[in-house]
Amino acid sequence: MKATWDIFCTVVDNFGDIGVTWRLARQLAAEHDYAVRLWVDDLRAFEHLCPAIDAELDRQRQRGVEVRRWSTPWAPVEAADVVIAAFACALPHDYMESMAGRDKEPLWLNLDYLSAEDWIVGCHGLPSVKFRQVQKFFFFPGFQPGTGGLLREAGLLEQRRAFVQDPRARGDFLRGLGVDPTDGARLISLFAYENDGLASWLDALASDTRPTQLLVPEGRILVDVQRWLGTKDMAAGAREVRGSLTVQVLPFVPQEDYDRLLWSCDFNAVRGEDSFVRAQWAGRPLLWHIYRQEDDVHLDKLEAFLELYSQGLSAPAKAAFEGWWRAWNRAGDMAPSWKAVLENERELAEHAERWSLEQASRTDLATALVKLYLNWI
After folding, report:
1. Domain segments of the chain as ranges
2. Is the full-model pTM beyond 0.90?
């Protein structure tokens, strides 16, 4: 019989949590042939990433995964062979009793947040809390050997390479989103949280000698975009021009199409965790809007990634890239750092591709989980 996997997800950041767990569930089912249940407490948010989801159903199958509504009161079910609590979410008490009642204890994992901090390597795989005799273990995604790696489907970079080498495929894809690529225009995707620093970046883009098409999926940053434009109620398909800058609002698209959007752009501004990783697989210079935490502890995570990612860059390119990220995440003036980025654009683009290939040389996260389970049994 197929091994069973239960993945539990509470939707905190709208799309980051469900984005990661949905990709993981699909990969475990499609590439490793496991029976996977994905428990989600907010099917409305899930619907944005998977339009086929029926938010009224408590149980349904999508893409080879059994999707279950995580609701209260909890309806008792038999615990799976592998239990993943995504991002330290607390499992239902009755489910933990079911884990403890199994003849063979399940492998219980806390799939933690992604970080480049040094301590991650030392903590990956360590035991966490116990419930009765069932031990939970930490599983940390990461960028370095000794971590759980990054989510990456089989053949992903080959698909990306074929796509970017086919101008017709790229053009057809963009036109399918309602985007008409202008010859010579720079394409930038913008998916971020609210940011007071956006206006200075848009000012710089609008006054540039080279035209820019800014593609903005519907989301939280759209409020700041509208404020700068002086418009209201922009929806998918809306298009505004200011100087050299064309702003276009895109609909929220399934994950595979979002990947293609990232592949199609020259620069990608992303947020949270799921889009952050996908932008790295795109092999394009990226700008990360990290999820803000109390006491600015998120800035430590930002600096840890910058230190790792910037290795191998020349001093001017390193300073430009890091200054760009710090200005964005501190809502500072984006114009000086953006100018420096453009002066080092070629090197940053080449570096982004090398980084993508380097990360792809490591075991992907789903395969690392499977290896851990096989060792467990």
Report:
1. 4-150+363-376, 156-360
2. yes
